[in-house]
Amino acid sequence: MSDKDTQPLSGKDLARKPRGFPDKRETLVHAQAGLVETITGVYRQWGFEALETSAFEYADALGKFLPDDDRPNAGVFAIQDDDDQWMALRYDLTAPLARFVAEAGQTLGRPFRRYAAGPVWRNEKPGPGRFREFWQCDADTIGAPGFHADAEMIAMGADALRAVGMETGEFVIRVNTRRLLNGVLDGVGATASDTRLAILRALDKMDRLGSSGVADLLGKGRMDESGDFTKGAGLGAAEVKAVLAFAEAGAKTRAETLANLSKATGSTDEGKAGLAELEAIALALDALGAPEGDVVIDPSVVRGLEYYTGPVYEAELLREVVGEDGKAYRIGSIGGGGRYDDLVARFTGETVPATGFSIGISRLAAALAIMGETGTLDGPVVVLNLDRGDPSVALSIAAELRRAGLRAEAYMGGSGMRPQMKYADRRGAPAVVMVGEDELAKGTVTIKDLVAGAEKAKAIKSNEEYREARPGQVEVARADMVATLRGIIAAQG
Question: Which of the listed residues 370, 389, 412 is the one where a domain comes to its end?
Answer without folding.
Answer: 370
